[in-house]
């Protein structure tokens, strides 16, 4: 592994399911990193005050001065910047029989199936009726409207049915005895993207019937096998807890990757109604859309945006994926 690799800093909290997705990617790739433990609820001054980033979803990951928001772009950046050619693991292992990695379809599977289909019914498994009012208020602000705990409880049977149907599909995929979902040599992004959702849902009370080994034996074996794999690899990885202010100082004083890697696609910018150098706001299309991050648009291609964001001690380069995020010119009055 390269001794000159930039520092990696992960902003996380323990009960975040998407945090565990990135934890597992870091374990699989054996990338050493530092952790900033943030609150499950706002405010998070470690991010908003020290880095100037208003994006409120967790996790966020920094590699040097480049800060990545959303797990899709986090996983892509980790794979690209810590490649197997330098001794790191990979989230795109070769197929046992084809000898190739189906990278494009696995990326689509992770986003369009695992997150778009499985995650919402898994959220319904949360014991909403037992949660404190402060949590409900915070998550209502996240989704952009009031959450009714009783209504969430009432939706649980329908959500269980959706999960049951999808677990039958996963059971079918694993029924030939393969170890990993895409019949790869090792687990990869496809496995990670389904595992973190099902393992999270499995931890909630009252889900025992969903994870009945007699109905989905291959799924349960796969879940247990993958959980053991990540636990063993995480124990070999280097992870250090640091304070938010120290993390921000380290990020701001680090170098950033050249913008040339992303470039600036004028045609895509025209379609979106923005130009290089514009002050823009970028936010998710779904949850967290009322918390845009403002900065100067410096790079844009078919996969990502990069903003220069002013932090108290200097600039931070903030990356967002194109899929699932919107960009618009900042119309706020200038002082």
Automatic annotation (TrEMBL):
Which Pfam families does the annotation name? DUF7962, GST_N_3
Q: Which InterPro entries match?
A: DUF7962 (IPR058268), Glutathione-S-Trfase_C_sf (IPR036282), Glutathione_S-Trfase_N (IPR004045), Thioredoxin-like_sf (IPR036249)
By its UniProt entry, which Gene3D superfamilies does this protein fall under? 1.20.1050.10, 3.40.30.110
Q: Which residues form the GST N-terminal domain?
A: 6-86
Name of the protein in question:
GST N-terminal domain-containing protein
Which species is this UniProt entry from? Hypholoma sublateritium (strain FD-334 SS-4)
